[in-house]
Structures are given as structure tokens and as C-alpha cells.
Design brief:
By secondary structure, this protein is α/β, with parallel strands linked by helices. The protein has helices at residues 22-30, 58-64, 80-83, 112-119, 182-188, 231-241, and strands spanning 2-7, 38-43, 48-52, 72-74, 96-101, 126-131, 137-139, 142-148, 157-162, 169-172, 193-197, 212-215, 221-224, 228-229, 245-249, 271-273. It is 17% helix and 27% strand. The chain is globular, with a radius of gyration of 17 Å. Bound molecules: zinc ion (3 copies). This is MBL fold metallo-hydrolase.
Length: 274
């Protein structure tokens, strides 16, 4: 499978509109971008493509990256930066199956699949398939599983993608704190490529009203506030999961400019062949 990182930024992206911070300025100088989160996965055996999350930057991403339109999509959770690009499906597709989970979220009284059905009922070319977490299903010739992660107050899911022919495996943490349940960690383990939420460095926790948590033995917070992993948390998770390669994604412009473009922080347009 060929994995293309269409969007590697957080909800405001980098550069952030109207921002002249050193990190946004540096991104403009380097001519790199971190648009809102989305990943394109092409199955080279079948020629089919799967989109993971529907970024509000969908149009820009598909105009600037050399990837075909997807045959199907997955949605990890209902935050704006992961779902609201689905409106771009209007008039582009004859048929677009969208896969999401079926667990009713107490915070919304709806499952992720239910919210998508309700919000996009005007898109008659879009069909929504609801899945039970941890139960594999096949789409675009790949075996896919949603695994629960920790992104309060909403339900959110990581994604495990495996090619049943080649054994290639890509794991995505989704938006999550370091508090990922053990059975989800087991499902995400041993990937060829791990894409891990690392919104800010641990040093940023002092600026969060809730600080940080899930501290490691050295006292470094692996969770920023309650919703996302720090860089340090994401790297600890990558080590625990024994990932062959790791790219940090869902990155905010709050990284200091000197750290924001260092390895293994991703930028838009990176591709990986697994
Ligand atoms: Zn900025
Ligand atoms: Zn989110
Ligand atoms: Zn997000």
C-alpha cells in the first residue's frame, strides 16, 4: 500500500490563517504546509484508494497532491477537522461509502456513523456503513479495524490497516491522549508505519489550563491537557508499539520554530510504500 499524508496539521493548520508566529513564518519560508488531518491509502494491488478522515482542506489536498479520488472513506470522530470536509463529496462521486463506528456516544447521543448520516443526509451519493470497534472489515482490499482511543469528551478511534496479501500494516492513533486502552494498543502494535498524534511538545503543557498528564518516569507529560499526546508521549507510544517507522502528525503551530520541522514530525505530501 502507498500511504500519502494529505494533512498533517491540527485544527487550525500551519501556517495558521493570520498568524505571524515564528513557526508559521518558517513554514512559509520552507514552503511546507500542515493542513487539516487526512491520509490517503492506495492499494496498489487493486488500484483502489481509501481516505482516512475528511479534511476541510480536501479540495486543496486533492488539487496539490498526486493522488486519485478515494473509492471509500473512514471517519475517526466528528470533530470539524476530521469530518467537515465530507461536504466536498457533493457532485464529485457517483458513490462514496463512508465507514465509521456504531457505538452511541453519551456526549452526543449518537454514534459517529449516526452523526455522519444526520449531517450529510443531503449527499445521496454518500452511504454510511457502521462498524463495531475491533471487528475487522474489508474495504479497498484492505483489512480495517477501528480501535477505541481516548479523546474526551467525544468517542474517537484509531485505525489499523493491513494488507491481507502482503502483511503490510499501517496504524493510526487518531486524536488521542496517551491513555489508549490496552486492547487497542495490542491491535495497533508492530506496524510498518505508525502515524501518531503529537500536537505539541511536552514543554507546551505549562501553557494548558489543565497542564499535562500521563507522565513518564522522568516526569515528562505524555498527554497535553486531556485530548492529545505530546511529542514525547507519541514517541514513547511508538517505542512501546515497536513501530518500524513513525511519523508524528496532527501538529500545531505551537511547536517552537527550531523544533517544528525536525524529524520525525511530518509535513503534507509525504508518501510511504509499505
Ligand atoms: Zn503560527
Ligand atoms: Zn479531535
Ligand atoms: Zn483533530
Amino acid at each position: 500500500m502507498r500511504v500519502t499524508l494529505l494533512g498533517t496539521g491540527d485544527t487550525t493548520g500551519t501556517p495558521t490563517v493570520g498568524c505571524d508566529c515564528a513557526t508559521c513564518e518558517r513554514a512559509r519560508e520552507l514552503d511546507v504546509e500542515r493542513s487539516r488531518f487526512s491520509v490517503h491509502v492506495r492499494n496498489d494491488r487493486t488500484g483502489e484508494s481509501l481516505l482516512i478522515d475528511c479534511s476541510p482542506d480536501f479540495r486543496h489536498q486533492f488539487l496539490t497532491q498526486e493522488v486519485p479520488l478515494p473509492d471509500a472513506a473512514l471517519v475517526t470522530h466528528i470533530h470539524f477537522d476530521h469530518l467537515d470536509g465530507l461536504g466536498n463529496a457533493y457532485r464529485l462521486f457517483d458513490d462514496l461509502p463512508v465507514h465509521a463506528t456504531n457505538v452511541v456516544d453519551p456526549a452526543t447521543d449518537e454514534s459517529v456513523a449516526g452523526t455522519i448520516r444526520r449531517k450529510y443526509d443531503y449527499l445521496d451519493r454518500v452511504s454510511v456503513a457502521a462498524h463495531t470497534p475491533h471487528e475487522p472489515f474489508r474495504v479497498c482490499g484492505l483489512d480495517v479495524r477501528f480501535v477505541p482511543v481516548d479523546h474526551p469528551p467525544l468517542l474517537c478511534y484509531g485505525v489499523v490497516l493491513e494488507d491481507p496479501e502482503t502483511g503490510a500494516k499501517c496504524s493510526l492513533t487518531g486524536d488521542t491522549s496517551f491513555g489508549i486502552p490496552d486492547d487497542s494498543r495490542a491491535a495497533l502494535a508492530d506496524p510498518d508505519l505508525l502515524l501518531a498524534d503529537a500536537i505539541v511538545p511536552a514543554s507546551s503543557c505549562e501553557h494548558h489550563p489543565q497542564g499535562g498528564k500521563h507522565r513518564n518516569d522522568a516526569g515528562v507529560p505524555r498527554t497535553f491537557g486531556s485530548k492529545h499526546m505530546t511529542r514525547e508521549g507519541a514517541l514513547d507510544l511508538a517505542a512501546e508499539l515497536d513501530a518500524d517507522r513513525t511519523r508524528l502528525v496532527h501538529l500545531a503551530h505551537y511547536y517552537p520554530a527550531g523544533e517544528a520541522f525536525a524529524e520525525p514530525l511530518a509535513v503534507d505530501g509525504e508518501t510511504y510504500d509499505l
